[in-house]
Task: structure prediction
Amino acid sequence: MTPLQPPPTSMLDKYYGEDTQELYTGRVRVTGGEAAHGRVSGVVKSDDGALEVNLRLPNELGGPGGGSNPEQLLAAGYAACFHGALTLLACRSGVELKELVVDAAVTFARDPVDGLFLLSAEIRASLPGLDRALAAELVRNTERICPYSKMFRRGIDHVVSVAPEPLSPAAGDGNPS
Result:
């Protein structure tokens, strides 16, 4: 088995194109589970089968806990992406990182503007043994290139729609379109 390797630092090379160049799309489906409510008892499954997570409403929101929740999943993605971007940036700069740790927190809160809900995020990188000024520069530059950081800073393109109704076997030939 080939040992795992980080992506090449060429991933940091700038792209000069007129349109977005899609590199990968992660797809998941959430079903409602026992309570028929994704946040309370849902199940998240990726299309490739690599991810399957039981969702549970955390104790702090009046739920039973005992599973993951959307805030943890978003924080995990953010921390992993930031860690990877920081590692690539340090490698390209010739800086050796030892025992890099990235902590992320995503907070679900009430929005004082509309009275409903909002999310906030915090990321903290620990770069032991590295000069503090160099560490700050690397983290600042990583914040500029990490797509999760960019999303939190300036928003994200998104589409919300209703999926078409699947044909029932009696209504058609049984083949989904």
Observations:
- The longest strand covers residues 101-110.
